[in-house]
Amino acid sequence: MTKETTYLELSDGKSHKFYEVTIDDVEVTVRYGRIGDAGKTTVTAYDNAEQAQKEASKLVNSKLKKGYERANKGDRIKQPISRSDRRLARLNHLRRTGWKPLIKPTLDAPLASKYLGKPWLSPGANYPHCPNCQGALNFHFQLNLQELPESLQGKFGTGLFQLFTCFSCYTQFPQILQLPEAANSTSLVTEITPEDAANLSTWAPYVIQTSGIDDFHGRYMLQIVGWQPFDDYPYYEEAQDTYGTEYSEYEEMLIFHVDEQDCEFYEEDDPDRPTPTDIQLAWDRTADKLSGWGYWGQSVEHQYCRICGQLMQLLYQLGQGIEYAGHQGMTYDTDNLLLVFQCAEHKEEFNCYGSAF
C-alpha cells in the first residue's frame, strides 16, 4: 500500500496553522503546528490497514469541521507575527511598549540605575527623612535617566530619579536630582573580590525573595543593566471606560492572569493554548516595569498634574517585583503595588498611586 497524505491549513487572521495526516499501511503519522514550522509529529500503529484508514479519516474530518481546508504545502508562508500578537490583534490600537528591567547583582555604584545599594545624594545633602514622623526614609530604587532606552530619552527628563518611602506614614517621596557634569554611572565601580563574588551568589536570591532585607547594608546593589521591551496593554477597566474596548475573558486572561494550569484546558495543537512566553508576558505586565500601561490592581484613578491639570504619564510600576536567574520577588509592599506618574510638561511633578492586587 502506498503512502497517502492529506494536508490541511487554517489561516483566518487569528490562526495560521497546518495539520497533516499520512497513512502508511497500519501506521498513521500526524504532523501539526504553525505554517512554515516543522511542527510536532506523532505516529500511531493500528492492528490493520483498514482500521488505520478509518482513524485517519476521523482525524481529517474533525479538522475540516473546525474550519481547516485542504491546501498545498508552500502556498502560504510563515507569518512573522507571534501567536500572542495574532490572538490580541484586535487590541493593537491599545498596545504600548513596556520595559522590563534586566538585573545584575554587583558592587554598589552611586549613579547606577538600581534597586538597593545606597542612593546618590547631592554634595552636602543629608539622607532624607520623613517630614511627618522624622524617621529615615526607605530607599527603594533609582533610575539614571540618561541610560533609559533610546526611544525614551528625554521623555522623563534628565538626572537621577529616586523613590523613597516612609512605611510608617505610608507616604512616597519621588524626586529627580541633577547630576554633576560628566557623571558616569560606572566610573566608580571597583573590582569584585572572590569574597564579594561568593557573597553576591547568595545575597541576590535572598534579597529578592525577602523583598530587600539587606544584611550587607548597601555594599551591593541589584543593578539595572538593560531593558527588555514587551507589548503592554491597559487594565481592563481603563480599556473599557477610556477607550471603549471590552476584553473577552480569554483576552484578559492572556494579558494579565495566565499560568501553567490554564494550559491544561487546551489541546496540544490548539493555537489558543497559552505558551510559556504568554505566562512570562502576563507576569511582566504586572511586575516592575518602565513606562507602558499601569496595572491598576483594583480601580482606575487617573492622575493629573496639580499645576497644568493634564493627564500624567506612567514613569514606573512597582508590582510583583523583578526577576533574576529564576528568582522572582522584591515586591514594593506585601500584596500591594505602586504606580509612579509624572507630568510630561512639569517633570518635577509626581503622583503615586497605591493599590492591592
UniProtKB/TrEMBL annotation:
It holds the Pfam family DUF1963. SUPFAM superfamilies: WGR domain-like (SSF142921). Residues 1-83 form the WGR domain. It comes from the Bacteria. This is WGR domain-containing protein. The lineage of its organism: Bacteria, Bacillati, Cyanobacteriota, Cyanophyceae, Nostocales.
